[in-house]
Amino acid sequence: MGLSRDVYRLFESVVGPENISDDPAILRSYMYQPFGCKRGVWADISPAVVIMPASTEEVVAIAKICNRHHIVFKAMSTGWGIHNVPGVEGAVSLDLRRMNRILEIDGKNMFAVVEPYVICAQLQVEAMKKGLNCHIIGAGSNTSVLASATSVVGYGPDGLSMGYSGRNLLGVEWVLPTGEVLKLGSLSTGSGWFCGDGPGPSLRGIMRGWEGAWGGLGVFTKCAVKLFHWNGPSELEMKRVPPNYVLKEPIKYYKSSLFSFPTLEKLAEAALKLGEAEIGYFISRLSPAFVGLQMAAGTDYVNTWNTGMLQEMLKYAFLFVIFASSEREFEYQQKVLAAIIEETGGQVSPISETQEMQEQTSTAVIKVDAVLRSSFHPTGGFNTSFGAMDTVDLALNIIRVGTELKDKYIRKGALVDDGGDNSATLVFDQGHLAYTEMLIMYDHHDDESAEGAFQYLAEANQACLDKKLGPPIFQISQVGKGKHGAFGPACFNYDMWLRKIKSAFDPNNTADPTAYSPPEE
Amino acid sequence: MCPSITRYNFHTYSGGGRMALGLALAEGRLEDITDELLNIVYRCTACGACDSSCKYNSELEVLWPIYSTRAYLAGMGYFLPEHSMIIDSLRKEDNIMMKPKTDRGKWAEGLKVKDLSRGEKAEVVYHAGCLYCYDPELSIIARETVTLLQKAGVDVGIRGSQESCCGSIAFQLGFQGEFIKFAESNIDDWNAAGVSSVVTSCACGFGIMKSVYPLLGKEMKFEVLHITQYLDRLIKEGKIKLDRSIKSRVTYHDPCNLGRKSEIYIPWKGIEKKVLGQFILREPEKVICRGWNGVYEPPRDIIRSVPGIELVEMERIKEYSWCCGAGAGVKQCLDDFALWTASERIAEAKSVGAEAIVTACPWCERNFKDAIAASGDDILVYDVVELLRQAM
Amino acid sequence: MVLILGELVKGRLSTNTREMLGRGRELADNANGRLALLFLGDKVELVAEEAIAYGADDVYLAENPQLGTYQADTYLQIIEKAVKDMEPEILLMGQTSIGRDLAPRLAFRLGTGICMDCVRLDIEPISGIVRMTRPVYGCKALAVMICKTKPQMASIRPGTMKSAELDRSRKGQVHALATDIDMSQIRVKVMAKVEEQTDSVSLEDAKVIVCGGRGMGSSDSFSILEELARLLGGAVGSSRPPCDAGWMPSTRQIGLTGKIVSPNLYIAVAVSGSSQHMAGCAESHTIVAINKDPEANIFAMARYGIVGDYREILPPFIRRTREILEGKGGSRCC
Amino acid sequence: MQIVVCIKQVLDPEMPYSAFKIDADGKRAIPPQGTPPVISPYDENALEAALQVKDAHGATVIALSLGSKLARSILNKPLAAGVDELVLIEDPAAGDLDSFASASILAAAIRKIGGADVVFTGRQAADWDAGIAGCAIAEELKMPCITVARKVSVQNGMVRVERLLSDGFEVVESPLPCVITVDSDLGELRQVTMQGLISAKKKPVSAWKLSDLKLESPPPPRCELLELYIPKRKRVCEIISGENAEDTAVKLADRLFEESLL
């Protein structure tokens, strides 16, 4: 379903011929097939055209053309996932790759202003030069800062000390689906980027909701995010060779340890206490499988796994990192940590004390660049399922239910046996909140595996309803088309609000609703 | 790091996009081969940056699927018209410069050097490569190289008009059939000549000889060395003395084919077993070449050994080096892209205050020189050998 | 009936014709039919008895001064008429400059098919269908074909079939054919015929070929090959590289884009054995390879090989060969 | 003067042995990866012959090709080399035709083009090596035919051709129009230049189907292909060796004598 030449020319006049294409060769690389061919709402849907705007003005112009001609559009930044491409045929895909500038780093007020294609690693490098650091989401430092802040979830294990992307969001420049530009927070009153809320009621909730706008409410072209204190080196020098880069110099007042607990409950209790004690830089639940995959690959990994040693030692474990700014604070945090671990019957895993592990984790923790290696190594096919950013209790329920359900599919042989309970989780935002996400690995080139994974995800969604676990984070966007409708009634009819917002902000329904919500009927 | 995506921005121009494209072709999800498609496929210097950066912590092969896509298209008869010129010249004249074979030996006229193609014997055969043989401005460097080796007491010979192309361009453009013929006949000739080492100044030649020749399964009774490796040895053995000092602040540009692409690629053969449910276990284990085993230090050591020279590094070096833009036929067929890529690198060199870019491949040198001529920049370009000669 | 179009070389049956007679005889016997030979020319009756001695039952002579030299338009008229009268089952001619020129057009006019350049003919006893084998894809593959209409036509590559024994006692009949020529049909005129002076035999006819490759190194080095060729009464050929390099005239090139030969003995000196070259000589009876590189492809194709430098091998080889030919062969041979 | 050159797209005859594979059931060679098809070498000589005539007397040269799937990037080469127009007959039905069938289709195309003063073809195509099509085209068009030409010149309405013989060559003359099949001795097709490539982009290319030639289906084959196979070369090379070169050489000579090969 292509565009008429006239409309194409309209778009072309906005961005120039170099930055627009509807050639099949180009479109092919803007399509995903997460579960192999013809599975799930996203499979094999091609955009009608790909456009690469370079400025807010161009985005506005494009949005206006779309409204005039009733064409659906969807913006993508770094494109880490199927929810970045249009979920309907004949849509315009906006690749924001050319909007990749860090516009400002305000050292005094500790924030940065970025465009959509700025990735965490890029911002972190610049921030560190000024003695600052930024929150990086769990998926890794190669993801868009703005996208996490405005549109998609935004949890990261360093959230223990640096909140989460939604919380760190300050001023925003927002191109509404209609093409009007809306400025949020202090920006709206022309008083700069420093605050997320301007005078009057906060718009952040409407804009971002709990887990993000998922491209359903137009395009966020600029935003400011909080930066945090960094007392490490202003430049991270690496040694060794890929894939084992590590920091040349160990960082002062830095200590990472792997703690394991007798039960899941104890693990959660410890995490909660650590959060409330407001110590620590980084905490992440690490499943035995993921720890193993960090340290070994192929046969080595499989052999290690088969010894059962990993499962034994790390069944309920998390990685906890202290990164203090002074000798005294360092000692203090270690004391508190030791105390809490003792109360909760935790044990330091010997693995984490090896210099190898200390070095390895240091980069992995600061740059958050390790997860890809674990998640894609076994099969190349990876997905997330159950999940929530909520309370510790909910996190625990999800893990229990999720593990049980996953085990069923592992026994079927559809998924990689990662011990079932493979959840990258835990308290963040200094213990006020807990995050969980059940990860699965499957072979998307293997029909049975792909089919199995797909069924698992569907069942997982159903379980969220039956077991009262709330809407499955991420999943909605994936198996989703309007799935909010299904979860709303179970969750205070939140979907009604989404639909109201959608209708109010997008009268012509031109911003692709697939991952968000359709407007009111 | 990838010139192609940096210049053209559409995802398809990136390593990942190219894999998506190749897969679509292979799976028959993309029937019509548009000019745009060919444009995308060949506006890529096959510099391998995508491959190295992906392997920073993953095990994906990115470069070879790019080769395969080209071979697949070539097999169906799809390529740019300019490519057919190069390949015809290769078939008719054994070179990619569209010049007569009989002129290939001209660069060495007047040199007192053994010609192995006439049955003379030598320890080392010096392979000048197409560009050095036919580019009047550069062939002087080949002459200097031979004299340099002779001065250092090396028993060196050449193959005169019988030297032929290494096949690198043919391979990278997807004409693998053509490549095999040249690779095999070169190996035959060198085996027959009974030399102990083949030394070349052309990084493109070196890269292909190191990384792909071995895959042909022919016995190679000789060692393949790049001139920088050989000269580095000679200097360290004290056979070359550098006494004249050169006051200059230079930076070194890693040729892709001398660096990340000179690492041998080992195609995986074996069985894939599924364990732990879907875990794909390869037996034997797949060998991953991440590009950090390239030739990085010898050229740098040579530069450092020149009295008075200050070597400053650029931001993107070694396995993360930014390509000069000339590779994989882009220089001959899509020069605009080649020059743009070079200009980016030149800007980077100037940003670290270098007065000259030193490199070790005629293609890089040619392309930088052209880009500088076009932009009227004042920065200089040297081959490592030129630097050495000045310092002797 | 099996009909063969005969050719003369210097007044005698060409080798190729004798070879066709050899195989033709077997085909005829197999189908218990007659073997006939058709000759066009000026005063050719002399060859009739030779043809019979080589196995022909009938010899048809079309004699006319105008037929002295081959001219397609003339020959076609006569042969077309003759074949239509005789209605042979099988019609063979040589893969020679005449056969190449004539066969396709004759087939077209007879409304039948033809297999060019066959190296092998097999007949199915009952049906009498001839399975014709011919090299294709530059000798990389062999194709077996049959001709669906009569006569089944084939042109035969010289040197690929066994000539019949000469038997003077054989009897046969000689027939004269009318040779009235319609001059209006003659459009192409032969102005001159130039024989190229080569001291050795032409490549196509040579029983022995000595071929030099890229490894020869220079044009002068070919002289030693000339010497060997002269000794063996053969011809000197070359693979493509020496021709490209100008060491040898392109008329001497054997291979895909040069001459296609199948001599009894093919001595490949410093030839690597590329597909381009082998296309021209793969069908030779015996290939001998002399090459420095033990991995050279030529050894895969050769029957006998020496791994070594031809400069060292050839002189003693020539000496020994001369001894042998002069009857002074070592004890083992006599 | 109008000249038509018939060119055939074939698998590269110079592809490495290893690359040459056959689909025995389909009785056809399998196109290899990494080795593009080419214009049959002798057809390139034919193009050169036509361009030489054009250089000498001026002429419109039209390249004509027939096949089931034709690669533009390969068949555009003649345009870059100086040919004025390209006519492609691309039709699934034109898959594997025998020489006579191809000839009748090509002849039909030549009539549609408006005839030709000279039709050039290669002496034979590098796939089936038959050497029939050229002659058959001549018969179809009732034109005189001169085969295996190594030199061609046109003067006052006549062509003068040197045609190759095994022991030399003969000089023949023919009135126009006529068909000439060309040998490699005539010389390789001239190098394509950058300007050539650029000008080629502007030259007319027409693509026809059999139906455009008023042909529902191609004529039936006159011969039937029973089998296509790669001969098993008995790779038994007897390597002769001795104490030294001398000895080895003698051994070889004796061996050949024993086998009565001398």
Structure description:
The complex is a heterotetramer of chains A (521), B (392), C (334) and D (262). Helix content of chain A is 37%, strand content 18%. Chain A is built from 20 helices and 20 strands. In chain A, strand 12 (238-239) and strand 13 (246-247) form a beta hairpin. The radius of gyration of chain A is 23 Å and the shape is globular. With 392 residues, chain B is an alpha/beta fold. Chain B folds into two domains: 3-78, no CATH class; 82-262 and 291-391, no CATH class. Chain B is built from 17 helices and eleven strands. In chain B, the strands form three sheets. Chain B has a five-stranded parallel beta sheet with strand order 1-3-2-4-5, sandwiched between helices. Chain B has a four-stranded parallel beta sheet with strand order 9-6-10-11, with helices on both faces. A two-stranded antiparallel ribbon of chain B has the order 7-8. Chain B is globular, with a radius of gyration of 21 Å. The two termini of chain B are 36 Å apart. Chain C starts with a strand and ends in a 6-residue tail after the last helix. Chain C has a seven-stranded parallel beta sheet, with helices on both faces. A five-stranded parallel beta sheet of chain C has the order 15-14-16-17-18. Chain C has two domains: 2-185, Rossmann fold, CATH 3.40.50; 208-328, TPP-binding domain (Rossmann fold). The radius of gyration of chain C is 22 Å and the shape is elongated. Chain D has two domains: 2-213, Rossmann fold; 232-262, no CATH class. Chain D contains seven helices and 15 strands. In chain D, the strands form three sheets. A nine-stranded mixed beta sheet of chain D has the order 11-10-9-12-8-1-6-7-13, with helices on both faces. In chain D, strands 2-5 form a two-stranded antiparallel ribbon. Chain D has a two-stranded antiparallel sheet with strand order 3-4. Chain D is globular, with a radius of gyration of 22 Å. At the C-D interface, helix 4, strand 7, strand 9, strand 10 and strand 13 of C face helix 5, strand 9, strand 10, strand 11 and strand 14 of D.
Task: Describe the secondary structure blueprint for this structure.
The complex is a heterotetramer of chains A (521), B (392), C (334) and D (262).
Chain A: H1 5-15, E1 20-21, H2 24-28, E2 49-51, H3 56-69, E3 73-76, E4 92-95, E5 102-106, E6 111-114, H4 120-129, E7 132-133, H5 145-150, H6 159-162, E8 169-175, E9 181-184, H7 204-208, E10 219-226, E11 228-229, E12 238-239, E13 246-247, E14 254-260, H8 264-276, E15 282-285, H9 288-295, H10 298-307, H11 309-314, E16 317-323, H12 327-343, E17 347-348, H13 350-353, H14 355-367, H15 371-376, E18 381-390, H16 392-412, E19 426-428, E20 433-442, H17 447-466, H18 475-478, H19 484-487, H20 494-505
Parallel strand pairs in A: 2-4, 3-4
Antiparallel strand pairs in A: 1-2, 5-6, 6-10, 7-11, 8-9, 8-10, 12-13, 14-16, 14-17, 15-16, 18-20, 19-20
Chain C: E1 2-5, E2 8-9, E3 12-13, H1 15-30, E4 35-41, H2 45-53, E5 58-63, H3 72-86, E6 90-94, H4 97-110, E7 114-118, E8 120-123, E9 130-136, E10 141-147, E11 152-156, E12 173-176, E13 189-195, E14 208-212, H5 223-232, E15 235-238, H6 240-244, E16 265-269, H7 275-278, E17 286-291, H8 298-301, E18 304-307, H9 310-328
Chain D: E1 2-7, E2 9-10, E3 21-23, E4 28-30, E5 38-39, H1 41-57, E6 60-67, H2 72-75, H3 77-81, E7 85-90, H4 99-113, E8 118-122, H5 133-140, E9 145-155, E10 158-165, E11 168-175, E12 178-182, H6 194-200, E13 205-208, E14 223-229, E15 238-239, H7 245-258
Parallel strand pairs in D: 1-6, 1-8, 6-7, 7-13, 8-12, 9-12
Antiparallel strand pairs in D: 2-5, 3-4, 9-10, 10-11
Helix pairs in contact in D: 4-5
